[in-house]
Amino acid sequence: MKWLRNLGLPFSVLYGWIVWLRNKFYDWGWFASQGYEVPILCIGNLSTGGSGKTPMAEWFLS
Predict the structure, then answer these.
(1) pLDDT tens, residue by residue, 14-34
(2) How many CA atoms lie within 13 A of 58 on its CB side?
(3) Helix (H) or strand (E) holding 5
(4) Which of 59, 56, 58, 26 is nearest to 44 (CA)?
(5) Measured between alpha carbons, how far is 34 from 18 in angstroms, rounded to an integer?
(6) Alpha-carbon span 61 to 3, nearest angstrom
(7) pTM of the prediction?
(8) For residues 45 and 40, what is the distance between their CA atoms, to the nearest angstrom?
(9) Using CA atoms, how far apart are residues 16 and 22, in angstroms rounded to an integer?
(10) Which residues of 11-48 are buried (b: 16+ CB within 10 A; e: fewer)?
(11) How far, in Å, CA of 14 to CA of 27, rounded?
């Protein structure tokens, strides 16, 4: 399994650098966040099925 870890290392370094650069763009004001007048709640992520998003939304709204 060490070979698999070594294979993924360059990709993880590249991903880390891209995320760092994206965060710097927000810090420098090159990217802007968008705000809304009403509160917005996001439940879940990009997974589909079986992660419990619907029961969590029902519990939160009750």
Answers:
(1) 999 999 999 999 999 999 988
(2) 4
(3) helix 2-28
(4) 56
(5) 21
(6) 47
(7) 0.57
(8) 15
(9) 10
(10) eeeeeeeeeeeeeeeeeeeeeeeeeeeeeeeeeeeeee
(11) 20
Tokens of 39: 């509160």
Rounded Cα gap, residues 44 and 27, in angstroms: 26
Q: Two tokens at 28?
A: 């420098």
Distance CA 8, CA 15 (A): 11
- Count how many residues are written for the chain: 62
* One-letter identity of residue 8: G
Q: Which amino acid is at 16?
A: G
pLDDT > 70: percent of the chain: 95
